[in-house]
Specification:
It contains 15 helices and 17 strands. It is of the alpha/beta class and about 500 residues long. Helix 7 links the parallel strand 10 and strand 11. The N and C termini lie far apart (about 70 Å).
């Protein structure tokens, strides 16, 4: 290995050790592959605080004996990350079969498996192939050690939330890496039960690449998510709350339009948080202030909408090198969202801004003064207090315009609804395009807050963004499409 590769390996191992918290330790079981990694691990200071056990059962008999006698997956290892590595690589005479390496990383919350098929036409030696296998194993352990650091004060590092072309630079162009992550459902259950504040999901670098099923590419591919609970997001991130039912072109266009305004805002109010590639977090609240709680299977379905492997809309962000994630929270109110996401900017529509200043949300529970002058004074006091808490958390808002529709949108010619992700629904002449400025003109509470914190809110003009798509109308159209299809099937059957 070249010297710069050695320094990279030492840096990654140091990062693993520094993320340990006394209980975040791991064991390594290598059955013939990744044998270079143990020496790398044990020659970097800090191993005694992170490495619990390293075993190398080489033969099949020794491996079966290990699994049978020691039961490495039993409860006594519940707080331990376990890494397994096996291989079928070059050795002596040329092999007829593929040169493969299999890795599994097991934690309390998930199992992640890696299958690496090496290009044997390159004529790599056994040592060279094992070095590659060891680097992949190190990558897997480092990723899991960071995400398993559940002490409530961990951070998502740049190497995980940005799409970096050199994430697997040690692989050749014709090497094929398949990654599968099994998401534990209890992560969402913990959020809904408020045992965790939020669950953060984001695709790895491999998720941005085409799969062999749709491309001749043999590069990395994954259709699942990296996920973590209660981690700190990078300062300067953009948090986009919504139900995303469904996610559509308007959501993505608004996120892209907000990036330039976000740069302008950060330069003015928080230069230290300014980033060329801020993380965009699509936040879905399992509990909403005006709606019933969202069912678990519905949350899972909405999360999968953001998979870049299946939704072309997400490729628009990837093509522009915009890193994104999806957060599931159980906090419907912004004052509580700010406690989860301090030093961030919330991206909202004008309709959400209007609700943010609606005094009914700031009256004490059970108050009989709703709508009265005294009730409004009480609510306004609580509104100012809540906005002060947002300011204390260094949170800001970017507001996109939204059309207030007073007439139902029409369907396409012939009564067949258009495609959800691409159609713009017709808007009636008297409908009004609301912006931040129009709401501040008419709302007393908004004027009061803006007077106290003039830099908290930044608007996006109609020229910068307008998209008349509506999730509500899309759902109606999709529902109508389903009715049309069912009627068509009945007519055919007759």
């Amino acid at each position: 290995m070249a010297s710069f590769e050695v320094s990279d390996i030492q840096r990654d191992i140091s990062a693993i050790y520094s993320s340990s918290t006394g209980h975040n330790i791991f064991s390594l079981y290598a059955t013939g592959g990744g044998v270079a990694l143990p020496s790398w691990l044990l020659t970097v200071p800090g191993a005694s605080g992170s490495v619990m056990n390293i075993q190398m059962p080489y033969s099949r008999h020794a491996t079966l004996e290990l699994l049978d006698q020691h039961n490495v997956l039993d409860k006594q290892h519940a707080d331990e990350n376990l890494s397994f590595c096996s291989n079928d690589m070059a050795f002596g005479a040329p092999k007829r079969g593929a040169h493969r390496c299999h890795i599994a990383v097991v934690s309390a919350r998930e199992v992640t498996s890696y299958t690496l098929t090496l290009d044997k036409n390159l004529g790599r030696s056994r040592m060279a192939e094992d070095t590659i296998c060891s680097q992949l194993l190190l990558h897997a352990i480092r990723e899991q050690s960071i995400l398993s650091n559940d002490n409530g004060d961990s951070n998502i590092p740049n190497t995980l939330h940005r799409y970096r072309g050199n994430e697997f630079s040690f692989l050749g162009e014709a090497d094929h890496l398949a990654i599968h992550r099994h998401i534990e459902r209890n992560l969402l259950e913990d959020v809904c039960a408020k045992r965790s504040r939020h669950a953060l999901y984001f695709p790895s670098v491999a998720a941005t690449l085409p799969s062999p099923a749709s491309s001749t590419s043999k590069g990395p591919v994954v259709h699942d998510w990296i996920h973590a609970a209660d981690v700190k997001v990078p300062p300067g991130s953009i948090v986009f709350p919504g139900s995303f039912n469904p996610v559509h072109e308007g959501h993505i266009s608004l996120a892209l339009a907000a990036l330039e305004r976000h740069r302008e805002l950060m330069k003015r109010v928080d230069p230290a948080s300014l980033s060329a590639y801020p993380l965009v977090i699509f936040e879905i609240a399992a509990v909403n202030a005006d709606k019933p709680p969202t069912a678990m299977d519905v949350l899972e379905a909405r999360l999968q909408q953001f998979d870049p492997a299946t939704n072309p809309l997400m490729q628009r962000l990837i093509e522009r090198s915009v890193p994104y994630a999806v957060a599931i929270t159980s906090e419907p109110l912004f004052v509580n969202k700010a406690a989860i996401f301090p030093h961030t900017t919330f991206l909202i529509g004008a309709d959400t801004l209007e609700r943010l200043f609606n005094l009914k949300y700031y009256l004490p529970a059970g108050s009989s003064a709703a709508g009265s002058a005294s009730g409004n004074d009480i609510a306004l006091t609580h509104l100012v207090k809540a906005m002060g808490q947002l300011a204390d958390k260094h949170c800001h808002f970017i507001v996109g315009g939204r059309t207030r529709q007073t007439k139902p949108a029409a369907t396409a010619a012939g009564g067949v609804p258009p495609v959800a992700a691409t159609v713009a629904f017709p808007i009636a002449d008297e409908d009004v395009f609301q912006t931040m400025e129009t709401i501040f003109e008419d709302d007393v509470g908004a004027q009061c807050v803006f007077g106290l914190w003039p830099n908290m809110f930044v608007g996006i003009s109609e020229e910068q963004f307008r998209c008349d798509l509506s999730s509500t109308e899309i759902r109606k159209q999709l529902q109508l499409q389903g009715v049309v299809r069912r009627v068509a099937r009945v007519n055919v059957a007759r």
